[in-house]
Amino acid sequence: QVQLVESGGSLVQAGGSLRLSCAASGRTFNSLSMGWFRQAPGKEREFVAGISWLSTTYYADSVKGRFTISRDNAKNTVYLQMNSLKPEDTAVYYCAASALIARTAGQFGSWGQGTQVTVSS
């Protein structure tokens, strides 16, 4: 099991940028795929971006071209750079870890506590 702690959530105006961080501890970080999910009030948790242990990246269509996921194995940290933010990006953002290259929440076994991102119009 790996422990995950997110940070970096904030209130930002539409068009602005934020960078989320997720620090991992426990199991060997560089053997895991990492993902970012988000959940808005009244909505289901949705996949945002993922990065494999080989640093292959993949994104939801709604964020492609605006968000960038990256990882620093030396720091056991995964990042989500979010640019051109929109009000519809408002949600709690969660970091997750998986032994698979996955997009489905059920395939991720470890989760952080979440960080709030609010985008004002």
Rg from Cα: 13 Å
Going by helix content, strand content and strand pairing, the class is mainly beta
* Distance between the amino and carboxyl termini: 39 Å
The secondary-structure element order is: EEEEEEEEEEE
Tell me the major beta sheet.
7 strands, mixed
Outline the low-pLDDT stretches.
none
Oligomer: single chain
> Which outline best applies?
globular
Number of helices: 0
Find the count of extended strands (DSSP E, 2+ residues): 11
Helix content: under 10%
Mean pLDDT: 96
What share of residues are in beta strands? over 45%
Descriptive report:
Helices cover 0% and strands 51% of the residues. By secondary structure, the chain is mostly beta strands. The strands form two sheets. Strands 2, 4, 5, 6, 9, 10 and 11 form a seven-stranded mixed sheet that branches. The protein has a four-stranded antiparallel sheet with strand order 1-3-8-7, with no helix packed on it. The radius of gyration is 13 Å and the shape is globular. The mean pLDDT is 96.
Summarize the structure.
The chain is mainly beta and 121 residues long. The protein is 0% helix and 51% strand.
Provide key terms for this protein:
11 strands; 51% strand; seven-stranded mixed β-sheet; four-stranded antiparallel β-sheet; single chain; 121 residues
Topology:
Layout: E1 2-7, E2 11-13, E3 18-26, E4 33-39, E5 46-51, E6 57-59, E7 67-72, E8 77-82, E9 91-98, E10 110-111, E11 115-120
Parallel strand pairs: 2-11
Antiparallel strand pairs: 1-3, 3-8, 4-5, 4-9, 5-6, 7-8, 9-10, 9-11
